[in-house]
Amino acid sequence: MTSHEILGQQVQIPVEVRQASAFMAMYSVPTRATQSLIGYTGLEVLQYRPGHGICALVFVDYVDGDLGPYNEFGVAFMVRDHRVRGGSVMQDLKALATGRAGTLIHQLPVDGEFTMAAGRGIWGFPKVLADFDADHTGKVKRAAVSQDGRLIAGLTVKPGVPLPGSGTNTSLEAYTHLDGVTRHTAWDMNPRGARSRIGGAELHLGSHPIADELRTLGLPRRAMMTSSMPDLKMTFGDARTV
């Protein structure tokens, strides 16, 4: 077991999130524009169909975890494993189905100083401070995130249908890039009560640069699918350099 000193406190690895809730919307985005956006990482966009990748917008309410309670908004993209170069859509779909794809955390506003320091210092997560107005408890999930009085995004997600396999562990490879270094981290999730549906999202983009960045990918548009996870547990391992 390893540990990191963050703002005078020791953080043990793996970091545990014992209770959280989340909701998300997934969008189809053009491969060329997305690859241009994430080129700084050295990673490659995964294509679920020719010329199109996947962008996920996620709001998370961390209730009980090793980094304390806080809100988070993530802009993430599905990417190929860093050891894979090139490949067909069929190969990308197989990687998705077998858990060999990765998730690049491209933007990550939060509202807690300790989690910001830990996220940046331990894993290279691009956490920045922002303001949140979120409701994770209603049937319809709503949240908005702003920074310096400028709206980044507001997202509303309607309820979906229950998903089978509740309580099943899911493992992902999370990729980050900070200060010129790309890293990858083992990220395990155990969601209970998850619901999902086709479409079901309403997205509003504001005047913040992150909103402008999302517009370059053609957002807002109809979501491919939406999901909500009212009871989510997670663990994060140590980061490794790509």
TrEMBL record:
It holds the Pfam family ADC. GO terms for molecular function: lyase activity. InterPro entries: Acetoacetate_decarboxylase, ADC_dom_sf. It comes from the Bacteria. This is Acetoacetate decarboxylase (ADC). It comes from Rhodococcus tukisamuensis. The lineage of its organism: Bacteria, Bacillati, Actinomycetota, Actinomycetes, Mycobacteriales.
